[in-house]
Each structure stands twice: as C-alpha cells, then as structure tokens.
Amino acid sequence: MARSTRFNNSMPCLLKAGRPRLSVCSTRLTSRARCVSASSLHVSPLTPGLSGITWSGFDNVYYLFTHTETSSSFAIPHDIRILEEVFKVPIPGETREQYHARPYYNKKNAFLTSTLIEELSSELAEDDRKQAMEKAQGIRKQYAQLSEGYQKDKGNVGIPLA
C-alpha cells in the first residue's frame, strides 16, 4: 500500500480516519478545555468527523480547505455529494441555485464552531497576516503533492468511491 493512502489510517478501516478516531483517543483525557485537535487532512469536517469532534468535547474546528476545494483541486467530489444526499434536505420552493448556495452544515452551532483558517487572518497585524498566509500557501503546496500521489494510488488499494 502506498504511503499517500495510509497517512490518515483510513485503510483498511475508514472508522480509523483522523477525526472519528478522536472519540476513542480523547476518552483518555481528563480535561479537553486546553486541548487542540490537529488533523493531517485540514479539510472542513464531514459527518463522521463532526460526530467524533463533538463526542470528544472539542468545541472549535479550524480547517485549511473547504469541501469545494477538495472537489475541484483534489478530485474528491464525494464529500459534497454525501453531505447533500444524506443531510441537506431541500426546502419546498427552493431553486437549484438556492439549494447549492446553502452551507453543508451549521458551522456555528450548540456543539462547536468551525472556521476556515484564512478567515482568522483578518484578526492579525499586517506582518503576521502575511507570514501566516505564506505558511498556509506552503502547506497547500505540500498537500497538493500528497494529493497527487493519493490520486494515483487510490484505485489500486480499494478506497471506496475511488
């Protein structure tokens, strides 16, 4: 199995992927008030991740990529499709455009707040903002390289919906 498809423990069991695994790992923690969850994926969480984060007691999620970016830049369109097919219920009278313009989940809710890292940069001083954006670009570049390897290998290792 190629390294690019196993860095997040999703093979051979998707339940061992990063965020869902939080609910298992964090049961050993006595206080989550001072904990930070870091994900190697850096993508706005999907439903298993949201559940894992919520049940683990984390109340803030920060991510680098949106679901749209994972679809367009990393050829992983199924995240959006799963969220829409399973959870995004159409509102009677809603147009197709209105439906697609609505968010996939409530990013601020009773359990957690989910924030795109770039949105935080507006709170920084100009020099710090520039440095943070350069760092984010470097991470994006590295992730694009990892994604390239993942795309080449995913069909060969039995990843569902590959």
What does this structure look like?
With 162 residues, the chain is mostly helical. The protein has one domain. It is built from 7 helices and 2 strands, in the order ααβαααβαα. Strands 1-2 form a two-stranded parallel sheet. It is globular. The relative contact order is 0.16. Residues 1-9 have low confidence and may be disordered.
In terms of DSSP E residues, the strand content is under 5%
Described by the principal axes of the CA atoms, the overall outline is globular
Radius of gyration: 17 Å
- The topology string of helices and strands comes to HHEHHHEHH
Strand order of the largest sheet: 1-2
Tally of helical runs: 7
- The share of residues in helices is 40-55%
Termini separation? 15 Å
Structural class: mainly alpha
Outline the secondary-structure elements.
Elements: H1 22-25, H2 47-56, E1 60-63, H3 67-72, H4 78-86, H5 96-101, E2 113-116, H6 117-120, H7 126-153
Parallel strand pairs: 1-2
